[in-house]
Amino acid sequence: MEWENNSNQPQSIPQQPIPSEPALVAAAPIQGELVCKLIGFGYFFKKTFSIYKNNFWTFLFLVLVPFVIPFLSSLLFSLLPSFSKSLILLVLIYLVRIIISIWFGVSLLYAIKERENKMGIGKSLEWGLSNFRSYVWVSFLVLIITIGGFILFIVPGIIFTVWYSLSVYVFVYENKKGMDALKRSKELISGYVTAFFGRTLLFSLILYFILLLPSLIIRFLSAFLPALNYISTVAGIITTPLFVIFSFLAYENIKKAKDGGCTKSPREIKYVLLALLLLLVPLGILV
User: Is residue 108 scored above 90 in pLDDT?
Assistant: First the structure.
């Protein structure tokens, strides 16, 4: 069973060649379960950077503003006369920060979903604002249930974290709200825990190590030029969308597999092992 284009059917010739997505290959059913392997890590890696490149300014703006607002608000607060400063004003400033961060965060997810249509900053923010309350409710449910699991016992908290890790993607992509988003997340991640977290962890570590050496050099030089400290912040802003894009692509792939009748993936331990190997590298250097 494969998800591929059928070359025997007549197709219109596009004006420009469209690169085809690698097929999801399903193995023979094992004990009544259809086992499907997700697309390889290399494809996700290349696709992530390609999407980011094609939508760079939109994604960068949606990430940049939540970083800039706290800096500007703190600067404004420090410039106010002492008599006008109060706890209420400080609380209001923090509330504005949180609201903007959530608003732009959900707008970024929508922009990634509609990447082919290039919705732009305005449309993304409009959608994010109109779906703000529903997004907050889904995130709140995930937070409360997960914290409750950690308070009662550590293991349930970990399990809930895994089950509901795709809830916000489900909300944005499938428009499922409240507990329906959480239930759908549990349904999707079931059987694909290793496939999803192995890929995302490996990607995060690769990106971290790519930035590690320049970051260490900048930190060393910042002792002589303090302004260089801001470069690390800028690097963090620029790379943040990459993590979100990669995770979103992995979610889309899992959804495609589940919608096609797959129940689980093979035990793709190799990505977890590669990630653990990367974690051992700095420890080995220190030793």
Answer: yes
CA-wise closest residue to 91 among 73, 104, 75, 79: 73
Question: Which is nearest to 53 in space by CA: 118, 104, 110?
Answer: 118
Cα distance between residue 149 and residue 136, in whole Å: 20
pLDDT score, position 20: 46
Contact at 8 Å (CB) between 246 and 200?
Answer: yes
Average pLDDT, the chain: 82
Q: Report the percent of the chain where pLDDT is more than 70.
A: 77
List the one residue out of 164, 197, 185, 170 whose CA is nearest residue 268. 197
Contact 196, 254 (CB under 8 A): yes
Cα Rg, the chain, nearest whole Å: 22
pLDDT-derived band of residue 278, with 50, 70 and 90 as boundaries?
A: confident
How many residues are present in the chain? 287
Report which of residues 38 and 129 the model is more confident about.
129
From its phi and psi, is residue 175 left (phi > 0), alpha (psi between -120 and 50) or beta? Answer: left
| DSSP symbols for 109-124 | HHHHHTTTTT-HHHHH
Between 65-74, 228-237, 243-252, 265-274, the lowest mean confidence (pLDDT) is in: 228-237
**Token code pair at residue 197:** 């977290």
pLDDT beyond 50 at 3: no
- Measured between alpha carbons, how far is residue 93 from residues 120, 122, 129 in Å? 28, 24, 19
What are the start-end ranges of the H helices in 114-228? Answer: 120-130, 132-152, 154-163, 167-174, 179-189, 193-221
Q: Which long-range contacts (CB under 8 A, 24 or more apart) does 253-258 make?
A: 253/24, 253/38, 253/39, 253/44, 254/38, 254/166, 254/188, 254/189, 254/192, 254/195, 254/196, 255/173, 255/174, 255/188, 256/3, 256/24, 257/24, 257/36, 257/38, 257/192, 258/187, 258/188
